[in-house]
Specification:
Layout lengths: L2 E5 L2 E3 L5 E8 L8 E6 L6 E6 L5 E3 L7 E6 L4 E6 L8 E7 L5 E2 L3 E5 L2
């Protein structure tokens, strides 16, 4: 079965950095567009960043210039490097394979607070 396992979340101070990882199994990873989404209570899940099989990237306006998505097909892993974190970045971050109708991880909590 398909598994997407996120890691790297946690508590960080404003201005700090975190690196999220998502290890995939059960899919032909190199063929999938991968994405990171986030959700806060009472709000819809929103796209943060996405990367195509060829490595093209797309970012939400809120992430541009601060976040970087990357992938390592040999390790079947997608990453989200988050710098200059703000309190409003606090959310549960979800890994996705294949878009809205694709596969989801269980999520990892990111809390930005002093």
């Amino acid at each position: 079965q398909v598994q997407l396992v996120e890691s790297g979340g946690g508590l960080v101070q404003p201005g700090g950095s975190l690196r999220l990882s998502c290890a995939a199994s059960g899919i032909i990873f190199s063929a999938y567009a991968m994405g990171w989404y986030r959700q806060t209570p009472g709000k819809q899940r929103e796209l943060v960043a996405a990367i195509t099989p060829s490595g093209s990237t797309n970012y939400a306006d809120s992430a541009k210039g601060r976040f970087t998505i990357s992938r390592d097909n040999a390790k079947r892993t997608v990453y989200l490097q988050m710098n200059s974190l703000k309190p409003e970045d606090s959310a549960i971050y979800y890994c996705n394979a294949g878009g809205n109708l694709g596969h989801w991880g269980q999520g990892t909590q990111v809390t930005v607070s002093s």
